[in-house]
Amino acid sequence: MESAPALEVVESPFGDEEEIRVDEPLPDALPVLPLRDTVTFPETLTPLAVAQERSIKLVNDVLGANRMLAMVASRDPEKDEPGPSDLHGVGVVGIVARMLKVPDGTIRILVQGTQRVRLGPYVAEEPYLVARIGELPDVTEEGPELQALARNVQSTFSEIVEQIPYLPEELQMAVANIDDPAALGHLIAGALRISTEEKQELLEEVNVAARLRRLSQILARELEVVQIGSQIQSQVQSEVDKGQREFFLRQQLKAIQEELGEEDEQQAEVNELRQRVEEAELPEHALKAAERELSRLEKLPPAAAEHGVIRTYLEWLVELPWSAQTEDNLDIAHAREVLDADHYDLEKVKDRILEYLAVRKLKPDSPGPILCFVGPPGVGKTSLGRSIARALGREFERISVGGVRDEAEIRGHRRTYIGAMPGTIIRALRDAGSRNPVFMIDEIDKMGADFRGDPSSAMLEVLDPSQHDTFRDHYLDLEFDLSDVMFIATANVLDTIPGPLQDRMETIELAGYTLEEKRHIARRYLVPRQIEQNGLKPSQIAFAEPALTAIVEEYTREAGVRNLERQIGTICRKVARDVAEGSSNGKVRVSAKRARELLGRRRFFAEQRRRTKDPGVATGLAWTPTGGDVLFIEATAMPGSGKLTITGQLGDVMKESAQAALSYVRGHWQELEPDLGEDWFSQQDVHVHVPAGAVPKDGPSAGVAMTVALASLISGRAVRNDVAMTGEVTLTGQVLPVGGLKEKSLAAQRADIKRVIVPERNEGDIAEIPEHERSALEFVYVDEVSKAIGEALAK
Ligand SMILES: Nc1ncnc2c1ncn2[C@@H]1O[C@H](COP(=O)(O)OP(=O)(O)OP(=O)(O)O)[C@@H](O)[C@H]1O
Ligand SMILES: [Mg+2]
């Protein structure tokens, strides 16, 4: 305390050498100095801070007399100026050896304790307490037990001293040199930082053996506390130091290795990986995993099988775009330009995309919708996704989940499997190199499920905005935040997508293109692209409009434009060859004739001309996943016994339609062919056949076509070759509405049909088809199948 800088020795009445008179006879009464929070012991030197006015006066007074006072602990350390009843009854007589004045007006004294005394009664309370005192000597029973106790206390204490910084080493010496067990007890009790109560208890114990026993209990407890404390301390310390230590050691290692011109191969590998981990800006949980794996790798011999596994894992970790991100371009005018530059029409889709951008611009953190483009092949679903990425300035990644049956495809295999890899989501993210790509999930309608788990449930997790941010790949076994990814799914049909999955997506339908639109797309997009891709210049080749029509009608039959582009590509390639061979100079004009020459045999015919030449064949329209198709219903009769045969692998509902159609015609033969005669139906067998393998043939919508085919058969009048029809028929001949009219009307146009007979109640659906997509067709609305028959049969 004396060495504290604020402390100034202003008065030192006694020299150090001056002898302290401890053998003076004990007076009757002594001034009492109450001690707050401490206990003094006989035969020990105790520094005390004195602040209370009455205590300062007391010290000044005793310094002027025999320097003797009594010190006693207060029962309540909170209490200022305690009275006699607040003080313990046993204290210690002391002699003030030194006094120092502190600049703040308080004083410090050093008191030599002499002997234990009983205090009271008090004879004065003013200006300070004065009490009568009575001796309270130790009771010592010499013997081996006392010796043993003393030794035990000595050794335990010296152990404690070794571990506690606040106890000076000299104390250890002093304690070791004390022979008197009583003095030993006092010295140790005074030095320990234990509670005032315990100290007072030790002071009051007059039996030396009992005091040492108690003391040894306390010491044992303290030792334990000290040991636990130092354990904690060293743990904390080592954690703090470890990072730094490791760093320095590594630097040293590196320096040494460099100096020796050698770097052990394994270490080099680990070092390289460590550096990549440092550069990868991993989030905390991934960094932890990486460090754990790095230290495992360091300890493994390179030959261990685990070695490669860990290495691969770490490589995956560092290659993932944990924080790499591209900046969104939310300029809506720019986006519009990009979308228009890549795709013709598709207004509804483009509008939806621009809305999406607008929302993102206003509220950047709103979870965007997951769009699902549904439509037949080749209508631009995938390429739209690409354009969206281009418009936003994001990376584009595409995964196909068609045919995926194993959920591990999506979510990866656990690392315990040999050759385990992350799933397709994480793989694509790595390829994207940014954490916010446009992510296209193709063919979501063709995902399967089997014993290996249901991939659609994994997909659900990927597409669910509330689970996005905690996507966990089995291989990585770490959460990856997918919430900045823009997901777009594509499908050909909706009905095979599991309901919960559909629920999370906003579907946008793309139906297919008309001839007119296809020509336009060809002119503006496909032809220029193919010219470029085949190394030609626009000045070297030009497609005439009739050539495009011929390609669409004679060489393709599709809702989209993929084959059209392929055929255009074929022509460009052939022209390119001529140009390269030098056999063509100047501009090649591709006319319809030239196109036919280059493409060879015509692939598709407007079949219904030929097919419907004879009575008994009607042209129906079917909805298919590829965008709708025409369907021929053929009916023939032969002598027999009135049986109906139905072939063509039809579904049950369609077979029933055929039966209903026959019943209807049987009931109305007189209106159709009065000369037929009642017996015709019992003397003939009727056969209804629906050819064409690829078209799914079920549902009631072929009812009208079947009835018309049978009516044509019995009346001997052929069906008009430019008419197609769709609609369900009841037994009484009413025509009921059906679905898929947009696709069906596009299919009719492709087949060069001019008139389409549709149920009257579908008029609203027809009105919804954009004008330019139906202008080539004439729609005839019917509510009765008899009207359909009238419209369809040739005069
Ligand atoms: N409206 C359009 N404007 C310009 N090009 C188009 C349009 N629609 C489709 N295309 C072109 O047609 C080709 C085929 O399109 P895409 O590959 O996107 O089809 P898809 O709908 O994804 O088919 P699938 O279901 O088979 O995957 C692309 O080259 C695309 O650019
Ligand atoms: Mg596609």
How many DSSP-defined strands?
A: 24
User: Given the structure, what is the number of helices?
Assistant: 29
Strand content: 15-25%
Strand order of the largest sheet: 1-3-4-5-6
Any idea what the shape is? elongated
The whole-number mean of residue pLDDT values reads 85
Bound molecules: adenosine-5'-triphosphate, magnesium ion
Radius of gyration: 51 Å
N→C terminal distance: 127 Å
Low-confidence stretches: 1-19
Largest sheet: 5 strands, mixed, barrel
Approximate helicity band: 40-55%
Helix/strand/pairing category: alpha/beta
Report on this model:
- The chain is an alpha/beta fold.
- The protein is 45% helix and 17% strand.
- A five-stranded mixed beta barrel has the order 1-3-4-5-6.
- A hairpin with a 5-residue loop joins strand 4 (90-101) and strand 5 (107-124).
- Helix 17 packs parallel to helix 19 (562-581), helix 18 (545-555) packs parallel to helix 20 (592-599) and helix 22 (652-667) crosses helix 25 (703-715).
- The longest helix has 53 residues, at 208-260.
- The radius of gyration is 51 Å and the shape is elongated.
- The N and C termini lie far apart (127 Å).
- The model is unreliable at 1-19 (pLDDT under 50).
- Bound molecules: adenosine-5'-triphosphate and magnesium ion.
- Adenosine-5'-triphosphate (ATP) binds at residues 343-346, 377-383, 490, 492, 521, 525, 560-562, 565.
Core attributes:
5-stranded parallel sheet, alpha/beta, 29 helices, 795 residues, 24 strands, binds adenosine-5'-triphosphate, disordered N terminus, 5-stranded mixed barrel, binds magnesium ion
